[in-house]
Every structure is written in structure tokens, then in C-alpha cells.
Design goal:
single chain, about 230 residues, alpha+beta, Muramoyl-pentapeptide Carboxypeptidase, domain 1, 2 domains, seven-stranded mixed beta sheet, two-stranded antiparallel ribbon, 8 helices
Length: about 230
């Protein structure tokens, strides 16, 4: 493996099959394909609870599990397993946790919030399953949104309670909760006073929510029982 990494110009040359090495090794597969690459795909999907037979046949069952996995990681759910999907399968994220535009796992985002201090989260179901609307999940959250939350905590001096993340049940759209752009916060008096006293009101959303926009472009919408924040930068 080290010789392969060296020949491919990869660094470090450590013999570990990580995301970068996988991107050189993998073979793009899709529905109708057969062989060892499909077996490797099925094995990786089973790490996420797919429950597939590792038979090397890319049929309807594998296709459905691929699309569900791609959706959960904020990828195009086209059923085609190329470098981005392989990387997400191997690393658990679609962009890698180190990049500003990378998508985080729930545990990665939770670690960032816990380390910052003063940021907690709650859900009616006391859970983090992205596919349940009663949970609060950070799976697929953009790193920029996590960093923006930490910045909000530090700039406002307010303790933040997150009540909504990337879980299903929110409105759709490009800049949506599901795509990792939005987080909901409990509207404490500290946070509300900070937002309304720091950022100009810039309009009213179609649903009646008052809008405040930061110089960074981030948008704060005062909904009935929370602040809906869109982190654009």
C-alpha cells in the first residue's frame, strides 16, 4: 500500500487506507454492476446498518441503501458511488471534518459545541436520529454552521440551547436544515436581546417571522418559539 501511495503522489505514505487513498483506489459503481467493488460497497454500507447481503450484485436493494446514505450525508442521491460517496462511506463525512465547507457527523459537531462551552441541545425525543423529526441531529451539519454557532456563543456571551439541527421535518430548500445551513435556538432573553440589538431588521419572511441580517450574511428569523438561524458564511 505504501508503494501505491507513493506512486500516486499521496501524503503521508503511511500504508493506511484513508479517504485520500480510497479516492485513488475506488472504482465507480452503480446499479447493474457486479464484482469485488460492489462487495466492498455493500460491506461499507453495512457499517451504517444497511443489512445487505455481500454478494457483489448492485441491485435494487443496494441502490436504495446507497441513495438513502447519500441523502443522509448531503450528497446528490443519484445512486452512483463515485469518490465523494466512497469518501463519505470511509470517513463518515462527505467533506472531511477539517474543511470549512465539510459536513460533520453528529459526534463531531457535538464535540465542537461541548468544547466551546455554553452550548447545549435538546429534543422532544431525547435522540439524535436524523430521520426522526422528534430528534435533534447534527449529522450533515456544515462545518461553517458549527463554527458560526460557536462564534454566536462567544460574541453574544449567551448560553445557547439548540432545539433543531439537520433532522427531517423542517422546510426544504437549498439553504435548509437538512442541507446543514440552519440551526434553531431557544429564544432566551439574552440571545433575543443580542440579535435585535446588534443586527438590523431587514424584513419579514412570508410566514411572518421578523428577519435580522448580520454583516456576514447570516440570517436570523424570529419564529414563534425559536430563532431560526441560516449560516451562510
Amino acid at each position: 500500500m505504501k508503494s501505491f501511495q507513493s506512486a500516486a503522489g499521496l501524503s503521508p505514505v503511511d500504508g493506511i487506507v484513508g479517504a485520500d487513498t480510497w479516492s485513488k483506489l475506488i472504482v465507480t459503481v452503480r446499479k447493474g454492476d457486479n464484482g469485488s467493488a460492489v462487495k466492498a460497497l455493500q460491506t461499507q454500507l453495512n457499517r451504517y446498518g444497511a443489512g445487505l447481503a455481500v454478494d457483489g450484485a448492485f441491485g435494487d436493494g443496494t441502490d436504495g441503501k446507497v441513495k438513502s446514505f447519500q441523502t443522509s450525508k448531503g450528497l446528490d442521491a443519484d445512486g452512483i458511488v463515485g469518490p465523494d460517496t466512497w469518501r463519505a462511506l470511509v470517513t463518515g463525512t462527505s467533506g472531511g471534518s477539517g474543511g470549512d465547507s465539510g459536513l460533520l457527523t453528529h459526534s463531531e459537531a457535538a464535540s465542537i459545541f461541548t468544547s466551546a462551552g455554553g452550548i447545549t441541545w435538546t429534543s422532544s425525543g431525547n435522540c439524535s436520529n436524523r430521520n426522526s423529526s422528534s430528534c435533534t441531529s447534527f449529522d450533515g451539519l456544515r462545518r461553517a454552521s458549527a463554527d458560526g454557532t460557536v462564534t454566536l456563543r462567544r460574541a453574544s456571551g449567551c448560553a445557547l440551547t439548540i432545539t433543531g439541527g439537520t433532522e427531517t421535518g423542517h422546510a426544504s430548500g437549498t439553504y435548509s436544515h437538512w442541507n446543514g445551513y440552519k440551526i434553531d435556538f431557544s429564544p432566551t432573553s439574552c440571545l433575543s436581546n443580542y440579535i435585535t440589538g446588534t443586527f438590523p431588521r431587514t424584513g419579514t419572511r412570508a410566514d411572518g417571522a421578523a428577519l435580522y441580517t448580520a454583516p456576514s450574511g447570516n440570517i436570523y428569523a424570529r419564529e414563534s418559539n425559536h430563532w431560526d438561524v441560516t449560516f451562510l458564511n
